[in-house]
Amino acid sequence: MTEYATYFETMGRKARVASTAMQLADTAAKNTLLLTVADVLESHIPAILEANDFDMSQAGQYNLPKIMYDRLRLTKERIEQMALGVRQLVDLPDPIGEVMESSTRPNGMKISKVRVPMGVIAMFYEARPNVTVDAAALCMKTGNAVILRGGKEAFHTNECLVNLLRDALSAVNLPADAVQLVTITDRAAVSDLLRQREYIDVVIPRGGAGLIKRIVEESRIPVIETGSGVVHVYVDKDCDESKIVPIVINAKVQRPSVCNSAETLLIHEAVAPKLLPVIAKALTDNHVEIRGDDASRTIVENINAADDTAWATEYNDLIMNVKVVPSAEAAIAHINHFGTKHSECIITENKETAQAFLQQVDASTVYVNVSTRFTDGFEFGLGAEIGISTQKLHARGPMGLLALTSYKYYVQGDGQIRS
């Protein structure tokens, strides 16, 4: 038995017991829980901020890039937004118990396909304490138990939040162990958690490419893969010039540390000489470093050369690649080669080109004349989200309530036997 196996086995057993109770909770009980969570968060804002301030003060020892401090930082407004997201879940329909399909066989046997909770979910994530609340709230609404393993750089914030979530569970007579935080920060412990197949039904990693790669490769438990965001904006030859700068700046600059932030700008060669200098100036004015191919550097002198790794890099920073392409087809080919199947945008007024882009780009979310920053459960009306799935099985795109459910078949009859 490995060093941490007993710790995680105990945690898994507690989660499994708690999940049974959560599955029995009706909609009214779960909604009361969520309202309690929102109230508890808002009433403990000073305590949450104190824990977060401590984590922020320690972040330097973890070599956290300065741009990533934005992910780690909580403010009064961000906590209030978290509470709002929890309350929005109350207003959403409870998916559990939904009859997805039903039929009656010739022998009178009635078959129903019914939506049920997943059971126990293990959530891995990095320096984003808001994920602690989002993940827990979604699991509460869907009757699941969750084991949370956040990054050490946010440990004290996560610990404070989880203690509040557990208090809310106890206050409404639901098991506190429906939400548990891994308190071992040793990276070696991850492997032991990923072996708890007997108790954990699914693993969801949310973070950088390195974290996700490790989870996918080591887990003995099924994984819903959420991907890093090498996101593109393509400016087509038939674009509306007035839409370009607002979309590009929003996609790159608003929150460069998040996964739906754009990393590469592709621009059609027919409009590049006229429009690229305007876009480049807007980016530079917003402190964005531009790295480009030879064609873009011929048009704009102050663009740095993009190396061979640039096109596949998620910067999470104020850096953007630029590439001039000969056609929409070439843009699509570039995206499908270097993209991470997250979010992709085209700026065009040509309906045929837009439709081809929508159909041919392989990504969870594809935009026409809209910033990629909208790939988010809150913006999609899903309430909170547990991640952005870039895979194609079970769930894809922003993962709300339905993504945390499975189904079973109810078969009812009157003594039928198979001949």
CATH hierarchy: architecture of the largest domain: 3-Layer(aba) Sandwich
Count the strands? 16
Query: What is Rg?
Result: 23 Å
Low-confidence stretches: none
Topology:
Layout: H1 5-24, H2 27-43, H3 45-58, H4 69-72, H5 76-91, E1 99-104, E2 110-117, E3 120-125, H6 130-141, E4 145-149, H7 155-171, E5 179-181, H8 189-193, E6 202-206, H9 209-218, E7 231-235, H10 241-253, E8 262-268, H11 272-285, E9 289-292, H12 294-299, E10 304-305, E11 319-325, H13 328-338, E12 343-347, H14 351-360, E13 365-368, E14 388-389, E15 397-398, E16 405-412
Parallel strand pairs: 3-4, 3-6, 4-5, 7-8, 7-12, 8-11, 9-10, 9-11, 12-13
Antiparallel strand pairs: 1-2, 2-16, 14-15
Helix pairs in contact: 2-5, 2-7, 3-7, 5-6, 10-11
GO molecular function: glutamate-5-semialdehyde dehydrogenase activity; NADP binding
Domain Aldehyde dehydrogenase: 12-287
Subcellular location: Cytoplasm
Tell me what the structure shows.
- The chain is of the alpha/beta class.
- The chain folds into two domains: 3-225 and 391-412, Aldehyde Dehydrogenase, Chain A, domain 1, CATH 3.40.605; 232-379, Aldehyde Dehydrogenase, Chain A, domain 2 (3-Layer(aba) Sandwich), CATH 3.40.309.
- Helix content is 40%, strand content 19%.
- It has 14 helices and 16 strands.
- It has helices at residues 5-24, 27-43, 45-58, 69-72, 76-91, 130-141, 155-171, 189-193, 209-218, 241-253, 272-285, 294-299, 328-338, 351-360; strands spanning 99-104, 110-117, 120-125, 145-149, 179-181, 202-206, 231-235, 262-268, 289-292, 304-305, 319-325, 343-347, 365-368, 388-389, 397-398, 405-412.
- Strands 10-9-11-8-7-12-13 form a seven-stranded parallel sheet, sandwiched between helices. Strands 5-4-3-6 form a four-stranded parallel sheet, with helices on both faces. Strands 1-2-16 form a three-stranded antiparallel sheet, with no helix packed on it.
- The model has no long low-confidence stretch (mean pLDDT 94).
